[in-house]
Amino acid sequence: MRKLIIILFSIMLIIVGCSSEANLNSNGSEDNLVYVSFYPLYFLADEIGGDHIDLRMVVPNGVESHEYEPSMQQLKDIEKAQLFIYNGAGFESWADKVVGNIIEEDRTINASESVHLIMEDNNPDPHIWLSPQNMIKIGETIKDRLVLMDAANKDEYERNFNELASRLMELDNKYFEELKDKSKDSIIVSHAAFTYLADRYGFEQIPVAGISPEQEPSSKTIADLIEIVKNDNHEYILLETLASPKTVQVIAEETNLQVLTLNPIEGLTEEDITNGEDYITIMEKNLENLKKALVMK
Ligand SMILES: [Zn+2]
């Protein structure tokens, strides 16, 4: 009996020894531990990597992404990632602290390098994920990297990516199809998040706040906006879910605009999660509201 226990104990030690060695790479990273900065990248990595990756997200759900700062503990945890995926183009103000410092650059993906960036006052607009075409390009970069990291599951990553890409293509076609008869060419939005969406489907966004929702407009901007709304007969103002400047309410009341939601998908709310929403279902809801604002009956 004692002999058996010793044998079992030895086997356990071997298993424990092997597994911890297999999980830790020479650079201190943990196999298949993938960190993403925020939700749209989580969606892509989750759809493509499935159960083969241990996926974590830095900006928690329900929190506004633009102003988020990771905790010391989070920064320490990212150090162990085999792959860290971030948006880039200035979206994560804290990315410089991570890339090349906490984690070597070759263990990271800067998603904005996979797409064509639109410049706004000499700075790239970071809201690249609001074009389904961009999501396909970023998804392909993620898929290629996962294949390099874990060649044994290559077929599955490719199959998952192809499936995701065709769903995103379908979404893109639906946008073109349903907005093709639009009778207006602009929408009033709370912050300038929809440049890539507007560019792709041929309309303009008139933002109340700037690139970040925290940039409150001046009283001159508000007065100008009220003029635009009245002159162009706008009926709707499109607000977002996680952050909206108070001034938007002022403008809406001042001009009798009806309020609709246009979600910049910078994070899911608790309600989104409860309702099983994801990037694609939210983009479909956005399309319904865009149709109200752009296509006259
Ligand atoms: Zn934004």
Describe the structure in your own words.
It is a single chain. With 297 residues, the chain is an alpha/beta fold. It has 2 domains: 21-173, Rossmann fold (3-Layer(aba) Sandwich), CATH 3.40.50.1980; 180-294, Rossmann fold. The protein is 47% helix and 12% strand. It is built from 11 helices and 10 strands. It has helices at residues 2-23, 39-49, 72-78, 95-98, 132-149, 154-179, 195-201, 219-231, 246-255, 270-274, 279-294; strands at 33-36, 54-57, 83-86, 108-110, 119-120, 123-124, 186-189, 204-207, 236-239, 258-261. A 4-stranded parallel sheet has the order 2-1-3-4, covered by helices on one side. Helix 2 (39-49) links the parallel strand 1 (33-36) and strand 2 (54-57). It is elongated and about 85 Å long. It starts with a helix and ends with a helix. The model is unreliable at 16-22 (pLDDT under 50). The structure holds zinc ion. Zinc ion is lined by residues 66, 127, 191, 193, 264, 266.
- Helical content stands at 40-55%
Number of spatially distinct domains: 2
CATH topology name of the largest domain, in short, is: Rossmann fold
CATH architecture of the largest domain: 3-Layer(aba) Sandwich
Q: Let me know the number of strands.
A: 10
| Distance separating the two termini | 83 Å
Gyration radius from CA atoms, angstroms: 23 Å
User: Considering the protein shown, what is the CATH homologous superfamily of the largest domain?
Assistant: Nitrogenase molybdenum iron protein domain
The largest sheet is: 4 strands, parallel
Ligand species: zinc ion
- Give the overall pLDDT as a whole number: 89
